[in-house]
Amino acid sequence: MRGTVVIFVKAPRAGRVKTRLGADIGMGRAAALFRILTERTIAEAAKGPWRTVLAVDPPSAAHESATYWPPGLPRAPQGPGDLGERMGRVFDVAPRGPVVIIGADAPGLRTPHLRAAFAALAGADAVFGPAEDGGYWLIGLARRRAAPNLFDNVRWSSAYALADTLSSLPAGFAVRHLEALRDLDHADDLAAFGPRATRR
Known about the structure:
Layout (H helix, E strand, L loop, with lengths): L3 E7 L8 H7 L1 H19 L5 E7 L7 H4 L6 E3 L5 H11 L5 E4 L8 H11 L4 E5 L5 E6 L19 H8 L6 E3 L9 H7 L7
Parallel strand pairs: 1-2, 1-4, 2-3, 5-7
Antiparallel strand pairs: 4-6, 5-6
């Protein structure tokens, strides 16, 4: 199965990641939890036959693999702009073939979800993994057709992020959806997952 999985990650520094969760449980604990989630997400992505790349923030963290991420895993800075601008660049510059972008804050994500995304892109232009809060934990494009206005006017970090992104796709784009997963953004999300959220 050819294609690329790009994982959007931030250096797990207290006060820089999962700040909404950190406001509830403490910034240090939230950063430690995000580090566990990132390790788990990378491990799940590494099980597939696709290419796996990290898109990291801040840019300097792209060179800090010994501190945060497994050595040998390709890394590139996310660059400036809002989330849509950063993801749009990834879709523009990634190697040929389908591209799937994920974050590292959906504890339920597993390798079969990524396999299902690439399978969907064999017959569709785009695939989404909806999040229960109205956003999405995965977006993938087959890249057989251009999507020049992708992410225009998307209200990020809101209940409208998925609907807005769908509206930004070209008319006639075939879209598939995966199962809905829950992101870990607040203390109630952590309570809902229980020990599963922190289990390596």
